[in-house]
Design the sequence.
């Protein structure tokens, strides 16, 4: 069984394609419910995908989460050194937000900072991890699907190993380019994992071994778009919220 399957009963993941579509409010409510069910508070940390000197995206995130009564209070720049106390404060938060941005650069920063293993262990111990676009792609076994955003082929990516917390691959912003779906269908014949492709109104929530689909994400496998009932994943069940 893959490592992500072993942790299926523990991981708590929220994957957004984006946070600008009104329909994502359904995902927000599910996040709030998840935190309440765990008896957690409302403190969130923000891990930037790259340099953000003006913290504009962080401030936008504060406003976004504030509408749901959540407090995005801690900003983490992976390029800066962090004390033991600062690292402890990060993992003491009730949820951690992985920002959008350049996926490959984000992955490299996580590796260089030594944070990728710590995040993986924290999430596999039940911590709530939130990802938007690039941040969501990073929760899966590989960032291969991101190749489509940089004019490459996912099947050619050999060095994209990521957090490996979910048993599927993720692709956001599906409707942005008509060429994305044919490319994902082709790539699905090269990977043994299903691919979840989302428009910006869609998302995925994973908790307690249950995968919930918000909106209408496409499940792609073996060259075709599949019904949810046709997808089998070790340690997980797929259901609508």
Sequence:
């Amino acid at each position: 069984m893959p490592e992500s399957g072993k942790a299926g009963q523990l991981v708590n993941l929220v994957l957004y394609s984006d946070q600008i579509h009104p329909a994502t409010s359904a995902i927000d409510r599910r996040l709030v419910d998840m935190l309440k069910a765990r008896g957690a508070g409302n403190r969130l940390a923000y891990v930037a995908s790259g340099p953000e000197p003006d913290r504009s995206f962080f401030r936008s995130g504060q406003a976004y989460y504030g509408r749901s009564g959540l407090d995005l209070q801690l900003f983490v720049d992976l390029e800066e050194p962090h004390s033991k106390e600062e690292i402890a404060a990060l993992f003491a938060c009730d949820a951690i937000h992985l920002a959008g941005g350049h996926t490959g650069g984000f992955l490299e920063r996580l590796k260089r900072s030594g944070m990728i293993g710590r995040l993986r262990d924290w999430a596999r111990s039940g911590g709530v991890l939130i990802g938007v676009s690039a941040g969501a792609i990073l929760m899966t076994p590989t960032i291969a699907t991101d190749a489509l955003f940089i004019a490459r082929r996912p099947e050619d990516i050999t060095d994209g190993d990521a957090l490996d917390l979910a048993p599927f691959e993720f692709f956001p912003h599906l409707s942005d380019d008509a060429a994305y779906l044919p490319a994902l269908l082709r790539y699905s014949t090269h990977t043994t994992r299903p691919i979840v492709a989302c428009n910006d109104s869609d998302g995925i929530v994973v908790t307690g071994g249950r995968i919930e689909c918000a909106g209408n994400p496409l499940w792609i496998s073996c060259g075709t778009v599949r019904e949810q009932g046709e997808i089998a994943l070790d340690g997980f069940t797929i259901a609508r919220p």
Notes: DSSP finds eight helices and twelve strands in the chain. The longest helix spans residues 25-37. The CA atoms of residues 54 and 60 lie 11 Å apart.
